[in-house]
Amino acid sequence: MEGTKQKLGSWHTDVATDEEMTRLFVTALYETAETARPVSRSRWNGVQIMYRTAHKLAPLAAALCFVVFPACRTPQAERLPEVPVAASTAPSEKEVVQRVTYDVEQPAQRPKPEPVKPDSATPPSPAPTPPDQPARPVETVLPERLTLGELESLALQRNPTLAQAEARINAARSEWLQAGLWPNPRIGYDGGEIGNDGRSGQQGGFLSQEIVTADKLSLSRTVLSREIERLQQEALAQRRRVLTDVHRSFYDVLAAQSAIDLTRELADVAQKAYETSQRLFKAGNVSEVDVLQSGIELQQARILLENASNRYRSAWQQLAAVIGDPSTPPRPLDGDLRGAVPELTWEEASQRLLAESPELAAAAAAVARSQASLGRAYADRYPNWEAQAGAQYDNASQDTIANVQLSVPLPIYNRNQGGIRQAQAQIAAAQADVARVELLLQQRLAKAFEPYRNARVQTDAYSKQILPDAKKSLDIAVKSYDSGEIGFLSLLTVQRTYFQTQLAYLEALRQLRDSAESIEGLLLTDSLQTER
């Protein structure tokens, strides 16, 4: 017994065949049973019969182990050294990582057919990362003044919807891997006529394997490849949404900053006008109405300043949410709201939208996926086979018997007629969805182009005519008031008109930037709203 244990304890270093190792295990079981021999003589006879049968079936068991578990047999040159008993057997962190992060695809250890289509052999590569997308740092120190490019980088690093889209692609790639794996073989024990004439009867084992026909595994991977392409287009669309939201929020904050500066100047002018009206009233040069009117102008200017401050806080909070860090404190932005805005035409914008829209590309990928699903449905007309091979040792005749089975379902009633029709209907629905997306893009472009045209007309009118006239009117009013040609109320009216004109021009610039960025961003906005 001790000798057998020593042999079993060092089997990984001995040059032993699978048959010898099997006999060693059986002998150990027999010796253990003999040491604790049961009282029942019939049970002990059964143990002896199983021992003799297992010894005779050792070559068959070794062959089955070799076929089913080829990766478990360690070659002589690659066998691990014997570990001392006193040494710690706990694996290190590096070893654990190496064990977990092994390559899940090992073609030499899994039988699989040659794929029919090249794109089903390897999963589609991930969507290309744009050059301006930086690596994801753990922590970023923000500068005092943020540029548009820096905000883009922060959003691409922190916005959770981008990680969500990437995770969906990885999940689909894992599903692609799983869809192409062959079913595992089955190994089992087969015994018959046990106890006949006091013998163990026929003892043996079998190995069965489901044979996947019609290249179903490759076709399943093709379907998932098309799905991965669709998800990649959705990821590109989500990236565009994030960048568009960053651009729009950036110019909203710039407009709010300018509005605060303008309303603060208006409040200062109104404060000075109110103080001047009080002095003039005490001197008897103006009536009490002028004092009350200047006080009203001052209160309205303060309200405008408070509204501008609230608008700035709201715009900054929206920008901070888009870049993925709502706790980012407000800070100045380095940009020019009054910079040149590209001239857009309906024809060019429409052509670019239909040619570059990832939403339309995702709809086209859905059509390709549906077409691949139809090919997979046709393959289901051919059922899979079930093959089984085994061997038994007949203790009565002392012969080794082999048996082979092959079962094939007859596709008489079920030839996947419903699945094929379903796939055909899904193709028609996907093609109709492409047409729907094209019309939807045209509709959304029409809605976005109206405010762009209006804002373009307004900004041109303000910059070329209205603002110069308002400034000229203010200069004339100040000179006329100094010379006594107009009253104090008339001067207040001209001043209010001038600042209102400046605020209206600022709002027109904001609307122009907002609509232009939406059109340039292929109408992809609201990045944090994932349910579409």
Architecture overview:
The protein has 532 residues and is of the alpha+beta class. Among the domains are: 73 residues, no CATH class; 280 residues, Outer membrane efflux proteins (OEP) (Up-down Bundle). Helix content is 61%, strand content 7%. It contains 13 helices and four strands. A four-stranded antiparallel beta sheet has the order 1-2-3-4. A hairpin with a 4-residue loop joins strand 3 and strand 4. Helix 1 packs antiparallel against helix 2, helix 8 packs antiparallel against helix 13 and helix 10 runs antiparallel to helix 12. The longest helix is centred in the middle third of the chain and has 67 residues. The radius of gyration is 41 Å and the shape is elongated.
- Element pattern in H and E: HHHHHHHEEHHHHEEHH
- Tell me the helix content: 55-70%
Query: What is the name of the CATH class of the domain at 161-440?
Result: Mainly Alpha
By secondary-structure content and strand pairing, the structural class works out as alpha+beta
- CATH fourth-tier homologous superfamily of the domain at 161-440: Outer membrane efflux proteins (OEP)
* Biggest sheet statistics: 4 strands, antiparallel
Average pLDDT:
80
What's the number of helices?
Answer: 13
Q: Strands of the largest sheet, in order across it? A: 1-2-3-4
Q: How big a fraction of the residues is strand?
A: 5-15%
Produce the secondary structure layout.
Blueprint: H1 2-9, H2 18-35, H3 41-56, H4 58-68, H5 93-100, H6 148-158, H7 160-179, E1 186-192, E2 202-211, H8 216-282, H9 288-322, H10 346-356, H11 358-379, E3 385-394, E4 399-407, H12 417-482, H13 488-520
Helix pairs in contact: 1-2, 2-3, 2-4, 6-8, 7-8, 8-9, 8-11, 8-13, 9-13, 10-12, 11-12, 12-13
